[in-house]
Amino acid sequence: MDIDEPSLGAARALQRALPGPSFVERSGGGNLHVWVFFSEPVEAYVASGVLAQAARETGVTVDVCPALDEWRATSHIKLPYHGDSRPMLDNAGRPVPLVTFLEACEGRRTNAAAWRASAQRLGLAPPRPARSGR
Predict the structure, then answer these.
(1) Quick check: 112 and 44 in contact, CB under 8 A?
(2) Own/partner pairs, 92-98, CB within 8 angstroms, 24+ separation
(3) For a 10 Å CB count at each end of the chain, is N or C smaller?
(4) Eight-class DSSP state of 64
(5) What count of other Cβ atoms lies within 10 Å of the Cβ of residue 133?
């Protein structure tokens, strides 16, 4: 999630609203991103729906990726630690070295099944296939 402000408190509120571990990154523009790394692939509608619900619950203004209504083959994101910027942050908001983050993240991947269960409780459903013009 791309948080439209540099508030660590807003990021932490979003993290508490999510089912499982997540991480906060300082973006190149100075705002924050909340990242979720899953234990296995998860459907885009599940991820975007649960992230959007967390934003509604907390009242934090965010851009959710993937945004299914705008998804295009040209959509992209910059990963954490891109160049010399964009570090993950510790609980106090201080940058975490890449190796330290990777070691911490390895054992804290988010359980995809928990997100699917949350999506089901929210009544989320897979998007319908687009009809071809034929």
Answers:
(1) no
(2) 93/8, 95/26
(3) C
(4) -
(5) 4
- Angle 8-17/44-58 helices, nearest 10 degrees? 120
Which residues neighbour 72 within 8 Å (Cβ) at sequence distance 6 or greater?
none
DSSP H stretches of helix in 3-132:
8-17, 44-58, 98-106, 112-121
Alpha carbons 37 and 83: distance in angstroms, whole number: 20
Rounded to whole angstroms, how far apart are CA atoms 44 and 66? 6
pLDDT band at 19 (very low <50, low <70, confident <90, very high): very high
Whether the model pTM is above 0.90? no
Nearest to 87 by CA among 104, 70, 74: 104
46-100 pLDDT, tens digit each: 998 999 899 999 999 888 776 656 555 545 677 888 877 789 999 899 999 999 9
